[in-house]
Structure formats: C-alpha cells, structure tokens
Amino acid sequence: xxxxxxxxxxxxxxxxxxxxxGLDDETxxxxxxxxxxxxxxxxxxxxxxxxxxxxxxxxxxxxxxxVRKQRERKNKEIFLxxxxxxxxxxxxxxxxxxxxxxxxxxxxKHPGTISTLYAVEIPSMGGGxxxxxxxxxxxxxxxxxxxxxxxxxxxxxxYVEEQNPPGLIDHxxxxxxxxxxxxxxxxxxxxxKYVVGMDRDESDDxxxxxxxxxxKSEFVWTHQWQLGDLVMWDNRPTMHRREPFPDTERRLxxxxxxxxxxxxxxx
Length: 267
Ligand code: OGA
Ligand code: MN
Hints:
The protein has helices at 25-38, 50-58, 134-139, 143-149, 200-214; strands at residues 2-5, 12-15, 40-43, 62-64, 79-82, 85-86, 89-90, 93-94, 99-102, 114-121, 129-133, 153-156, 169-172, 174-176, 183-185, 192-195, 220-223, 230-234, 238-242, 252-259. By secondary structure, it is an alpha+beta fold. The chain has a single domain (2-259), classed as Clavaminate synthase-like (Double-stranded beta-helix). Strands 1, 2, 3, 4, 5, 8, 10, 18 and 20 form a nine-stranded mixed β-sheet that branches. A four-stranded antiparallel β-sheet has the order 9-19-11-17. The model has no long low-confidence stretch (mean pLDDT 96). It binds N-oxalylglycine and manganese (II) ion. N-oxalylglycine is lined by residues 81, 94, 99, 104, 115, 117, 129, 240, 242, 253, 255. Residues 102, 104, 240 line the site of manganese (II) ion.
C-alpha cells in the first residue's frame, strides 16, 4: 500500500489496496493513520458492491443509516446522493445544485465523523467536490481572532425542518480533534445559523469573516471524480462543498456514514 499526498491543502491517494477484499489489521491501521494525517483519502478504480463499501466503512466505526429517510433499499447503510429521477422523483439527495461548505450532520448532537462516497455515475462537467482543511484555516488566523473565538458556540440546523432533532443543537466554533488533539474551525455557511449569545449582526459579521477565510485557495482541495473512486473523509477537521453540474446529466454516488456515540465536539 502506498500513500500519495495530493500536494494540496489536504488529501492523499491510497494506491495498491483492493477494497473488494477484506483488509488485515495492519492495512486498516495504515489507512486510519493516512486519514488522520491527510483528512481526506481516496482509492481509484474500485469495483465495489454496496456490501464492500459497508464492510470497508465498518473498519472505522459503525456504519449507520442516514437520518434522512430514503426509499427502502436492500442495504439501509447506503444513502444515495443523486439527481437521477425515477417516475419523476429523485432517487437520492442533493440534486444538481451547488452545495456550500458544511461538515456532515453538524445539526445533530453527534455529528458525522467519517463518511465515504463511491462514484457510480458522474457528469461530464461540474460536480466536483471540494474539501477545506479546517486545521490549517484555524492555524492561519491571527492570534487576536483565535482569542475572540475562544469559548464561542454556534447553532447548526438543517434547512429541511423535519430533519432536525427537537431543540437547538450548538457546537463549539473551534473544536479539538479527539485523536490528533489539533484545533480546527467548525462553522460553515450551509448548516451554521448563528453564534450563541451575540446579536444577529455581530454573529453574521463574524461568520462571514470566517467563511471568507476558509474559502482561500490555500485551504481548499478539489477532487475531480472518476468512476470507481471511493473517497473517505473525516468531517471533524474538514468541510466540503459540491460544485453544481448540468441537471441534464446523471450523477450517482453511494454514501456511508460512521457513527461514534462518544464523539461530541468539544473545544
Ligand atoms: C455528502 C456530500 C457531496 C457530493 O455526501 O455528504 O456533501 O459531492 N456530498 O456529492
Ligand atoms: Mn456532505
């Protein structure tokens, strides 16, 4: 197995691993370390069944059903991200529009830790996914801004009202990764609503400043999808967004989500 860094803000390709096979402990440990080091890892040219993707996900925690219900399928752990329509109805989530920066499931008390996305159908243009290195973005802030962010919490909420748990969920604006001990920014324009205890204008100004900052190209890396790519990312120190693509084209991704009951963001 070989780990080849992208040379960008984060990310590495893992070569020499066939995910249709079960993996030994040593290989899993190497992959886990690469994920901690690079935050996003990808494997090209995989020919995965849903069972393969679920088995692989389960090496990193418990693969769970997504909070958003989809049409009944044989593997409840697989969630479809797609604009493909059957009988006039989209079979998956997120359509073909742009999806702005977010960390998955941050509107839950236990947000997403690790996620995987497997490319089954991709459009001829657009639809790339960009990840932001939120460790590096935090590190690059001026000390006075880091001091200003200390102790702040922000409310996160999904725009589909029924998808939210009862009550307001807030998380620290700066979180510490439970395994690396490093701090990262944990707010994004897609799911973060406001900073707790600030008036709305002050909160909007602060969040806007952070969103401009994380947008800088030095913190962002884009994955150009190829069929058979399996991308795995750690949501704790990253955010991601999806470029739009023509709705006349088809994009189909299969997704898994790891759930860790003891993983609640802390500063
Ligand atoms: C996701 C997601 C983006 C994409 O699956 O959580 O944001 O590129 N996907 O499909
Ligand atoms: Mn996402």
